[in-house]
Queue: 3 jobs
Job 1
Amino acid sequence: MVGKLLLRGMLVGLVAGILAFAFARVYGEPQVDKAIAFEEQQAQAAGEAPEPEMVSRAIQAGIGLATGVLVYGAALGGLFSLVFAYAYGRLGSLGPRGTSALLALLGFLAVIVVPGLKYPANPPAVGNPETIAYRTELFFIMIVISIAAMVAAVGLAQRLWNRLGAWNASIAAALAFLVVFALVKAALPDINEVPESFSATVLWQFRVASLGIQLVLWTVVGLGFGAVVERVVGVRDQRGPARRYA
Amino acid sequence: MSDTTFAPSYGPVAIPVRELLPWAIFGGLLLMLAIYFIGAEEGATSLIRGTYVHEFVHDGRHLLGFPCH
């Protein structure tokens, strides 16, 4: 059963990755190119020798980008299916499609949006190579805290469900999540390594494209996975005992 | 009422944790390793010498939102 879910999750993730790659090609690559042009111009102005190109731009923007996004998509789909395998049947009476869609929404918020508000995606030319270890550490700490807060918020909503009703329990849990986010956002150090003369437009469009790629991935996984596992997971119907399609 | 459990008479059936756990551990580790190679190898940490992996997935790494350079 779990193996079937995992396989389907990875396949849906792969499809999501293909669509996200197309999106990244159209909306993301122009911004990467502009950022690299800026980087080269800065290096030239500073009298530095141009960096040797180990992998050509065409490969980076083609097969390299495709590999990155597809592997990421398949891995995301797989991990998503494992979380689904645990959450299904444990989130009230939500069916497979509802569970999948809700998990994708909460996951997108906890893994992408909230950490991204603190440590947003940056194009090439933004970021000091000397602080990469520090920045990577903070980025993952932020994601871990955000996921933990989301799990706690869902638990809180479930606990308050019967007492407050569905709406009020969810609002209370969302507020608790926001409070944690506000505290963590204030407590963790800020990072701003955008060069003074970097185009604000390129930075904005790059970040919107980056968010768009993630939105494509999570939407396709959330809606697609529910659809393909509808007949795999167990349901109990009104008349008889537990029934499994698997 | 022959049903002696507290589970509702209809609705989704949860997968027992002991059935899920081995998949979650081994699958989860492998999948996270894949994300590590796309997102962080030859950046903050490095298992393979050189910068080829980094350069190859460079654009994806930036666009997927990982810290880079």
Note: The interface with chain A takes residues 7-15, 17, 19-20, 23-24, 27-28, 31-32, 34-35, 37-40, 43-45, 51-52, 55-69 of chain B (CB under 8 Å).
Job 2
Amino acid sequence: MTSLLSGRGLVKRYGAAYALAGVDIDIAAGEVIAIVGPSGSGKTSLLHVLAGILRSDEGVITLGGQRVDQLSETKRSELRRTEFGFVFQSGMLVAELTAEENVALPLLLGGRDRAMAIDTARTWLGRLGLAGKEARRPGELSGGEAQRVAIARAIAHRPKVIFADEPTGALDTKTGHATIGALVEAAKETGAAVIVVTHDREIAAMMPRTVAIRDGKIEQPVAA
Amino acid sequence: MNPLQLALRVLRVDRRTQVSTVLTALGVAVATGLVLLLTSLPYATQARAERTLWQHPTGFTESGGQVSFASSDDQVDGQVITRVDVAPLVDPADLDLPPGIDRLPAPGEMLQSPELAHLASTMPASELSDRFGAKPAGLLGEDALMFPEQLVLLVGHTPDTMPANAYQLPELAAGVAQPDGLLTLLAGVGVVVLLVPSLVLVASASRLTAARRERRLAALRLAGATPAQVTSMVAAETGLAAVLGAVLGVAISPVLHSLATWVPWGGGTWFAQDFILPWPIVVLVAVAVPVLVVGAAVAGLRRVVNTPLMAAGGHTSKPLNKGRLLIVPAAVLLFFLTLSMAKDSSAALLPLLASLGFLMWSPTIVGPWVTSALGGFFTKVWRKPSALLAGRRLRDDPKAAYRASAGVVLAVFAGSMALTLMPSLESEAGYYSAYRDSVLYLSTDAERAPAIVDEVDDRLERYGLAARAAQVGEVQLKQGEEYLQGYVVSCANAEVLLPVSLDCETEPAVYAPSGAALETVSYSTESTPDGGASEKLAPLGVTPVAASTDVVLIDPSLLPAGTELSNVDIAVPADGKSRESARTALLAASGGAQVISKEMKLGEQNSELADLRRVTVIGLVTASVLGGLSAAIATAGSVMDRRRTFGALMAAGTPVHTLARALRAEAALPALVATVGAGALGTVVGVGLFGLVSESVPVFSPWLAAPIVLGALVAVLAASVCSPALKRVRAEPLADE
């Protein structure tokens, strides 16, 4: 298996406490994995370090064979904007914007023109079952719908990796499963790898591969 | 746990509440300080008027007075000198003297203000001290001065050496001192113009925690708290900051007062004690401002008190009624209606002021609608995310977006009005005189005139000036049934002194617009049975030479004997530096008569306009800074409200500067639009008000662009906080809330 995103010896400290205490992890192109663990185990820190939101104190991260852990903040921002997509717990959508505008926003901020950005947004909203709801505001959508808008926003620019941090945390079980299903299906269409951080064992069980983490260390590889 | 304890607990643990409390307290402090300063202005002018009642007494008596009194204004190097001539009519020991004057100067002596004494000691006598015609005998105390640097002198006389225009006073400082009406009016306008942005600043500060507080209170309501309990909690939270702010405002008010003493008004600066307010007023303001702030905070709770679920779950704002648009045209119409009434009758002044107040209030109704419409426009035509974000934000909560600019709108409105009025009034200012602009002159009577001319000429020669004084008598003339103004002056002097162009005859002559026969007119001192005065005519007996002049010029030798002169002027032509010496010669020779010159008349007008311009600029700048701070805090609050979303966008790789650019546009647009609108409305009102006092065409100066500049200033201030606020958001953990 050729690794798309790789972390070696990752260490992240907060004062004297270790959030990551030497983590090795590889994710292949198009692979879907779940990172599971109890609260405070380091799973969100691992996701943030791999995505370049946080800088690790030690260790090496490569994307497509290129080191990315030594990049400047500007370069890492550019990497996150172009190569990665993000889905957060409660969508974190801009309340004043409509669904299609929320999806189009990262494209617009990246310099795409209005027509192209809105067109792409509408396409992805349609694929995620939100056709007809493009003009609704986040406050007018259900929790599951809002998360699907967030997925559309994460995938609209066709990233190589999608990072999802507790994407079902605010949803009921049924809606949560449907949302994860939508995320995995969408990623499959674009060939993106998906890394889902969750504390929900049922959600993790839906993934082909699960990595468990405890006290900042990979506990055991769990086969699919 | 009582509401105050709850408020203190929240304050102890929540950093954002701490920031909000500090900013609210600062806003209240600024508001309290400004209100205390503006309230003190009428008291300050009253204090000035009481100290200087002896210079400008308002009471006089026909007989039995304590003193004979005359006053005149003089000037040196553009500064006004107030001269008071006085002669005791009773035993000096029985005189009632005002504070700052410990004794009346003896005849031939004078008391000077310290600044005048200093100036007189540094200038040549021919340019200043000679004109006083008296020996320095002491200084006037501070309590007798209008302002610290006032140039004033009190000259002692015997009754028979007093100037011709002297009159009797029951005491030296007779009458009732009145505060400066214009400054009192401006202070009233200032309270409105500056209090509004101060309160907007308070509102913006408390808005920083509004969303979180609303959720907390909604949770408390859902948990069973009564509306009264929730209201008490908010009153305690806001009251804590407001009381702290009011105390701070009272504490900083001496600093504001001491700054205000440096701002000239009416020719000079102020004494520190001018601004001392009676303590009941201080207490009233210190109580009223926090009460107002707490009242506003409680009023803002209506939503959470009525429907806690809606507050807890967010809300959708209702579109604003288009009917709001009618308010401004209605207010403008009403204003011009009352304006036309005020042109005909001064009794309509109150309705005019009321309609002006209505007009000033109208933008607060129309502003949110325009803001919403602007937002709607941007959401339709946007090409960049900045326009989209701004448009949606404006459309969603236009009242809040407009509120941040409301204070500036009011200030810009008042400023534009003043900036339209002032250049127009300045264009009206001018010097209208029968003499050429270079001439200085004084008025006296025919009896004293020859001696004054001799004395003036003697002094002019001593000062090395070639110019000489000339008498110009005034006489009324009749030509058929038409009355004409005549000047008794030689042709040679007329050519130098009057704005006429003549071909002088070799012999004494009369020059008139037409050659018909003329008669001089005198009036009987005995009244006719119907109460009038009978005319006595004396033919000139000389055929006038036709000349291109509006008035009749009569050589003194041709004036019929016994003709009554209505006035006699002593005039001296002088240019450049010789003007101060010519002024000195005229004043010294006349014993304190009023000398009139172009620079003095223009100086008075310019001084008043400069005062107005100064307070307008100070008011505008203060309001703009306050407005800018409000807008900046509102912007920071808006970023904080959406911190999780922005945090997520930045985590997803959106550069801070890209997001900041979008937010800057969002913050700047309402301020810019609102100030342009307010500027236009203020200009219209300024034009209307100018029409009340003049029929001339208003002058539009480049200063009218100031509102745009101020709008930009506010926008820049507001926008400047976007980047640091976003950087702060980026530094926070993504899940923090």
Note: Chain A touches chain B at residues 44, 48, 51, 53, 74, 76-82, 84-86, 88-90, 92-97, 101, 105-106, 108-110, 113-114, 137, 139, 154, 165 (CB under 8 Å).
Job 3
Amino acid sequence: MASLDRVDRSADPSIIRADHLEVAYKDKVVWHDATFEVRRGEFVALIGPNGAGKTTLFRLLLGLRRPTRGSLTVFGSTPRRGNRRIGYVPQRHTVDNDTHVAAEVLVRLGASGYRWGPQFTFRHEKAAAREALEAVNATELGGTSLGSLSGGELQRIFLAEALVGNPEMLLLDEPLSNLDIRRARELVEVVHSLVRHRRVTTLLVAHDINPLIECLDKVIYIANGHVATGTPEEVLTSSSLTELYGVPVEVLHDSRGNIVIVGGEDPHEPERP
Amino acid sequence: MSGSGLPWSWNIVTDIRLMWSFAFIQNAYEAGTIIAIVAGIVGYFVVLRRSAFATHALGHVGFSGAAGAVVFGVNPVYGLLLFTMGGGTGMALLGRRAATRDIEIGTVLAFMLGLGLLFLSLYHGFATEAYAILFGEILGISPAQVAFTFEASLVVLAVLVVIYRPLLFSSLDEDVAEARGLPMLALGLAFMLMLAIAISIAVQVIGVLLIFALMVTPAAVAVRLTRRPLTAVIVSVLVAVVCTWLGIFVAVFQGQFPVSFFIVTFAFGIYVIVRGALALGQAVTNVRRRGGARYLGRTLFSGLIRRG
């Protein structure tokens, strides 16, 4: 089950450094005492039940929210909004199916959408969009209208939109939800090849770790107000998750190496904004 | 323009020349063209941002502003601007999903319509003024109003040139645009203010009740015809301008029905034709893909058999 191409990255520069980090909405602490590090070129999964605060971590990294305690640095400095070294795919279920705009337009806006004033040349922008679409195997989708794309196709377009400015880090929020197993694996392959070939550091929020498990360098598991990090082998064990949740949790393996976590998920836990 | 229209000859050139000899028709064409251009462009963003109901509501909010201005003896367009810009600012400050808050917006707009009604009842020329605000009176537009319309639209277009791409980005993908550092509140506010100005000047042509025909229908046609934003904006402007030109043209020669009726009818007609043609085209491709006439015959035949 161990990743075949996992390499020792302890010598690579640190991209994210969190030290005793705590975040709260009003008085309610979402999670606290999170200490971890993400190095350049790592593929990291953020796992945990609904409302545990996975998206909140992304909002901290994007500079859209401030931690209540502890310190967080991204690329060696405090996170700030509009950092172009970060490509972001937010959690989204669909686009309205009457959005009559070509997918390529969205990808091009990923490259130029933050620029004010009139624009006179489009050559550079077009080339960048073509390259990003190629990188996610979506060249043929460029002319299709966003509203008529399937879930998997849409995720690839969002990925291209995030990728078009050549970011050094990708934050992908639940790109696999609403995809069937085959589409999910296809998307993971695309992301994995970006991580390996372009050395794009990638954090991916997922509900189910199984489509990812073979590619991951690290897992950040958020549950019950606590954050656990380490390699999948270290984090995804009965003892480590029992400690995290504070209730008995069992990690089971099936014959193909798939993982089932029993006892941790509370299906009735309300979704946090 | 009550009574009969201009004498119609079958020589279009003579007709246009005749029409052009009337200053009030020239004024109507100038103002109508400017307004159609602005409405067509802003309308594209209305469709993209799904703000059609907000547009409708701002028109109604403007109604009470215009009626209030009439009571105080001010040009109605200033009352319109004041109220629509106030309403637009409120909606923008309500936050990102304001455009879809139907219930709140609907509650406010009902009250604003009532307020407008009160203002009009306080005024003696109730019927004519109400008619002009509700349905437009482009043939009564003065040269000063044309000049004001021109200046207001220059402001809208200048702002739009500056914010075009960020606005497009934030309309299509709010979350990413926000993470990219775009000022979402300022963009939302700028859009609402542009919308307010566009509505205020468009009311002169089409009135608050028919605002949809100029602000939404042309853009709705455009997005069906192209997936490129810039092309869609151009198509939307063309549709709006053609409807306005034809509307005024037919109205002055027909002489009895109001201009707004014709503009709305042309807009509706174009919309129906485009949607119909696209649906037909889709049906034809579907039939072809499934084996042409044989498929059609088979479906009809099996339908008959099942019935029998």
Note: Residues 20 and 189 of chain B are 40 Å apart (CA to CA).
